[in-house]
Structures are given as C-alpha cells and as structure tokens.
Amino acid sequence: MFGLAIIIRDALKPLSVILGTDIAALLLLLSILSAYPFAIFYRKFIYGREKIIQHLYFVTTGLILGYVNYGNDMIHPLAAMAASYAFLAFLGGTSLAVAAVFIFNMLYLLIGYYIMSTDSYDINWTMPHCVLVLRLIGVAFDYYDGQQNEEKLGTDSKKYMLKYLPNPLEFLGFACFPASFMVGPQFPMKRYQNFIDGQFGDKDPLKAPESEIAALRRFGLGLLYLLLFQLLGMLVSDDFIISEGFERNSFFWKHILLGVWGRYTLYRYISCWLLAEGGCILFGITYNGIDENGKKEWNGLQNIKLSLIENTKEFGDYIKSFNINTNHWVAHYIFKRLKFLGNRNLSQLGALFFLAVWHGYHSGYFLTFFVEFLVIYMERDIKYIIKANQNLSQFFDQAAVDIVVSFILRIYSFIFMGFCLIPFVFLTFEKYWVVLGHINYSGLIMFGLYPVIWGPILRAIVVDKRRD
C-alpha cells in the first residue's frame, strides 16, 4: 500500500504545481473530499447492516486515508488507540484511567511534535494524531462520568456518559471514522453509537439518513471558501505580510491589509472544515433532531457559523462561530473540570494553556492563546463598566449611537483578528515579532496594556462620572 501512496504523490505533482501548493496539502484536501464517495458507498451498501461490518468499514477507510497520507507513520495513531483502550480495559472508568489516558496521549503527541516539527506549519502524522488525542481523552472522561452518580453530572456529561466500555472494534471505528479522522470535527463516542444503532436514519432501518441536500450545501460552501482563500492569497499571502513590501504601506493601510490577511487565514481553515462537515453530514452522523417545522436538522457537528463569523463585532463572536466542536470539547472536558480552581479567569487560562500545548511547542501558539485571554478580558471588562454606569448605558442604547458603534466594532474585529493570528501563523519569535513591528505593536499596546493601564484609567473615568 505504501507503494500506492508514492504513486499517488507522484501523480499529484503536476497538479500541485498548477495550484501553487505542496503535495502534502493537496493530498490532505483530496483525503477530506474522499469522505464523500466513502459516504455514498456506505449509504448504498453498508448502512443498516450488522454493526461489526459498519465498524470494519470505518476502520478500513480511515486507516487507508491515513496510510496514503503518512505511510508507516500511521503506527503512531494505532499505538495511541491500543494503549488508550488497554488503560480503560484494565483500570475501568476510574480517575486513574482518565489520568493515564490523558498523560500518555499528551506526552506521545508532544514527543511527536518535538521530533517532527519545523519552524513552519507542518502537515505530517501529528495532524490527525492531535485530533485523535482529544477523541481518546474524551472517551476516558465519558467512561468515568458513566460510573458516577447521574444527579451530580452536568447536562453534557449525562448526554455523553458511557456506562460500559465499547468493544475494541467499536472503539477503533469511532477513532478512525473517515469523514473526521484527518482534520475533525470532534464528536463523542455516544453520538457514534447512536449513529451505528440507526437512530439518525429514516423509520425504515435499512434506509440511509435523508441528509444529501444538507451535505451538498456544506460542500458547496466549502468550495466557495476554498476559492475565496485562493483569490485572497493573490493579494495578501503569508510571504507578503512578513515582507518589506507590506511594511512600506501607511499605518492605516497596513491594518486594513492585516484584516484582509486575517480573513485569508481563516478561510483556509473554514474551507477544510466545511468540506469535512459535509462528508459527516452525508454519512448521517450529524443528525440534530427535528426543527419547529418538522424537518430533520443535520447541524449536529457544525464547526463554523458563517453568518456570525462574517458579521462579528467582538472576539467572543469568533469563539462562538469558529472551530465550534473543538471549543466545545475544551469547554466540557477542560474548562468545566477546572472549576475546583474557584476562579473563572484561572479556569479560562488553564483551558487556553491546554490548547496551546495541544497545538505544539512554538511560542506563537502560547502568545496567540494568551492574547485571546487578554482580548476576552478587555471586552468583558468594558461591557461591565458600561453596564455599571447608567449614563453610559443610556448613551449606547440610542439607535444612532448603536449604528455607529456597530460599524466601529466590525472594523475593530476585522482588523484585530488579523493581529491575533500573526503569532499563530508565523509561530517563531523571529518571524512574528517582525510582523508585529510592521504594525508598530498596536495590538500588544492595546490588549497587553489594558489590564494595567487602559482598564484602570477607564474605571477611574467611570467612577468620576458616577460621582458627578
């Protein structure tokens, strides 16, 4: 099979040159798209058959995709699956099992990053492996929750909990599900089990879910955003942003270009996630109940809220609309379980630190998520200050003022999303510090100094007004 992988890579070389991308990225995109023919075959020949056949189909197709992309390096995800299952089988649904699965998988991933990473964004076996790590840790937590008193569990914990350990083949089918194995989205074992049980299909247990139209819509949007990504790349590529050509622009124009570059960067991820979600929809695993009109909804694994992300007025909107399933995973399995710290800010810092470590060693990841904390802190604090001052609240409640403020906030979120992505894209201090210098460190000055300078000054002004 590895010989076939080499043949496929050689065949893709001319196309990669035409598209101006490397073979690894092109192969990854084709692997995401392959979920659609896999789903069509599944719907026609596999759906509704014995569970063992369905599990085998998912294991086989998922591993084929992994092997075509990464060859013998697929031994690493397989080792993680085997070790995680062994921990759960021998230790049961205990806190010790959760700790073992968590520590083993994070250490394995970090060692992989240490060996494989360069000073740029890498497409290698650690990419599907980082997706897998969250999936395996989630199963450990869900199995642990299943052994607890249900009355003490939260809503999501009750919904995801596992009373019994899945059998090995079921575990592998969940881990290797082909439509989400390469880039996500994340979903719990319980959703996979319900899907296999036929709960997301038609009344006829042998009739596949009626999700074709919803899948086609997501597929079409994915292609649209892929096209937008390519078009914007002609104007504001990563190489341009770090170049002297970008630096020679005016202060104002540099920030506008930075905002456009931010969209270019986001569209890279959005296009992949839309295409991956469309594959999941076509399989039928995204079922999300019946809407008020009696129609089935297929947005159970929605990873992007396009209407919100294209109309953001604050960074909280980005968090609500971007990479939704991973954010929900972190909120459920990390943030909420740090409640014992007794402080929301500490819990948020802990969750963001986990995200940074999960992404890798590069300082850019840690700076990105620390900046996210600062931005959210600033926005929450300003909202609190305005709400606490009656005069300010009444002023901002005026219709004319609201229109002006909404316009300013759209520009603010558009520009500074680009700023927030600088360290995430350029990764190393030597690179991202150059780009930050090009924009006179504007974002660092605004967000970084808010807790120690701008925030206290704003609070002092509000206190003075309230005394008047």
Describe this structure as you would to a colleague.
With 468 residues, the protein is mostly helical. It is built from 24 helices and no strands. It has helices at 2-19, 23-33, 35-46, 51-70, 75-91, 95-116, 126-145, 155-160, 168-175, 189-196, 212-233, 238-241, 244-247, 251-283, 306-309, 315-321, 324-335, 344-359, 363-388, 390-396, 399-426, 429-438, 442-448, 450-467. Helix 3 runs parallel beside helix 14 (251-283) and helix 19 runs parallel beside helix 24 (450-467). The longest helix has 33 residues, at 251-283.
User: Shape from CA axes?
Assistant: globular
What is the chain-wise order of helices and strands?
A: HHHHHHHHHHHHHHHHHHHHHHHH
SS elements, strand count: 0
Largest sheet at a glance?
none
Give me the oligomer status.
single chain
Structural class: mainly alpha
Low-confidence stretches: none
**Count of DSSP-assigned helices:** 24
Averaged pLDDT: 90
Beta fraction: under 5%
What separation lies between the terminal Cα atoms? 78 Å
SSE topology:
Elements: H1 2-19, H2 23-33, H3 35-46, H4 51-70, H5 75-91, H6 95-116, H7 126-145, H8 155-160, H9 168-175, H10 189-196, H11 212-233, H12 238-241, H13 244-247, H14 251-283, H15 306-309, H16 315-321, H17 324-335, H18 344-359, H19 363-388, H20 390-396, H21 399-426, H22 429-438, H23 442-448, H24 450-467
Helix pairs in contact: 1-2, 3-14, 4-9, 5-6, 5-7, 6-7, 11-14, 14-21, 17-18, 18-19, 19-21, 19-24, 21-22, 23-24
